Amino acid sequence: MTERSIYAWFSLAVLVAACGPLRPQSGTEPPAGLAPAVGPLVEAGARVARASPEISKIWAGFWQAPHAFGIAKPREAVLVVSEVAPESPFAALPRNALPPALRGRAYVAHGVIQGLYATQGNYFDLHARIVPGTELTVVFMKADPEATVEFLVHEAFHAFQLRVFSTPRRDDDAFDMPSAARPEFTSLIDLERSLLASGLEPMGRDSLEQVVRSYLAVRQRRYASTAESVRGEELHLERIEGSAHFVGLTAGAMSADPRRPGSVEKTVLEHLTMEMEAPDARWAVRMRSYGTGAAIAILLGRLNVVDWKTRLQDGATFHELLAGAVPLRPGEAEALARHQIEEAGRD
Ligand SMILES: [Zn+2]
After folding, report:
1. The pTM is what?
2. Residue 9 vs residues 5, 126, 147, 263, 330: alpha-carbon distances, Å
């Protein structure tokens, strides 16, 4: 796949990420001595830098603190945080105008930056080559600093996936749209999402395993009549986008000041219960994958599957990992699925 098509592939992700839930503006005044466009960049950058040691614990090998990154305000300024100075036209920001986490490692450039990829005027570059000897991810600023941290770490995780994950991309253009547009497909997948949502509620191990078995049974039922191309795309997107969503949300929560307990679960729950308004069935499969993958990531943690990240990285899908953690008993799948479908029909 060419570099250009990699960007096209990920630009879909940006569109989705850009539609994420908005949070209230922080209302923080820009630090004294900085241009108005630079203040919010510095605030978001400082959050990332302060949370970096914790972010590095989310996924082995992904984020080494200190980690170089960039945040941009489209058409105005780009902040780069790096131990090594970026090339011209970046200039160091004055130490006395910076929070301690950024002193000696914050650089800004204004206007159009050579070597930075931008789409529709927004900087978004997974592998920017503006710092000698390294590649870094640069994203545009979101509505508030925490959402910006989520977005940056989500996209930086995609860069990590491209380097390290087994089969990080899927080059197959085939997708059986009619199979994914059938009302039965949609109603079963909505039932699966509501079962995943109920699995995120606090409950004991036995109850959780029961919910997971019901969920797996319904998905198995749906897969019996789903085209292979649709299954393949769904499993792939869930693995790639679901893991990036989980990692980004976790990093955002770590950077929150003060940290809000349960915020990752809450955001995933919102995603699972939101109505999907997608232009077609393929987009709907993509958009659901963020929430379903992240939900299974949380459930694998609760089920004490300690090596799920390594196994996902090595090629396993979220669905395989969950089915391995809570195996369906012989012969129970059909009855479980039927029961759940009847229950849903009564609502
Ligand atoms: Zn993504």
Report:
1. 0.90
2. 6, 12, 22, 29, 40
